[in-house]
Amino acid sequence: MDIYLIDGTRNFFHFPVNPEEMTISRSKGYETINMLEYGEFDFTLGDKIKEITFSSFFPKDYDPSYCRYSNLPTPQAATNQLNRFLVSKSPAQLVITGTGVNVPVYVITYNTTFRGGEPDDIYFDLTFRTWRDAKVQSKKASSSKKTGQSSTRTDLKQTGKNYTVKTGDSLSKIAKLELGDSSKWNAIYKLNTKIIGGNPNMIKPGQKLVMPS
Q1: Is 108 helix (H, G, I), strand (E, B) or coil?
Q2: Are β-strands 101-115 and 118-130 bridged in parallel, bridged antiparallel, or unpaired?
Q3: Which residues pair with 103 in a beta bridge?
Q4: Contact (CB, 8 A) for 209 and 165
Q5: Backbone angles phi, psi at 76, to 5 degrees
Q6: Segment 169-200, tens digit of pLDDT
Q7: Rounded to two decimals, what is the model's pTM?
Q8: Which of 30, 51, 71, 172 is 20 to 30 A away from residue 209, measured at CA?
Q9: Are 142 and 182 in contact (CB under 8 A)?
Q10: 3-class DSSP assignment, residue 213
Q11: C-alpha 190: how far from chain center
Q12: Do the Cβ atoms of 93 and 104 come closer than 8 Å?
């Protein structure tokens, strides 16, 4: 299992150490109406926003027994990067491989802890809330369509479906991040054969690859 946060420009943060456990909270909204002669009645209001929480730490030194990769960011650099997700006004994509979690989220809570016996490591607690676009239909919205006025909506992706290759990338890794399935690397290769060349394993940092729709 690997955990990634991906912003709207396709920059991603790879958590270096997996949490021991993760909590996903789901609940249904409801409203209670009290009718004088008949008592209380509950009316469902649809699903509430999901919350995802976990705790882990940013290690100063690489340890193959628990680190997911060797080229670790410093604990302070990792903290600064997560702070940018916290203050961002745009949602990010949370991808947890092997679990089916691939959803847009906001970072709601980010708490860090420094422990006396491990002064160089930074421990943290994270809470995410899933984001969803408001799809409320109104007469005003309908009338605006008739008059040719366009309505705006938040879009997690920027215009264009390109990916810039980074150091350490492979087609299967890109397929997992962009398409949710590493086995789709061949579809990326077919679209970019002229750029990559005859060997799909020889992609180079800086190459701009077209992503399948």
Answers
A1: strand
A2: antiparallel
A3: 94
A4: yes
A5: -70, -40
A6: 898 888 888 888 888 888 888 888 888 888 88
A7: 0.53
A8: 71
A9: no
A10: coil
A11: 27
A12: yes
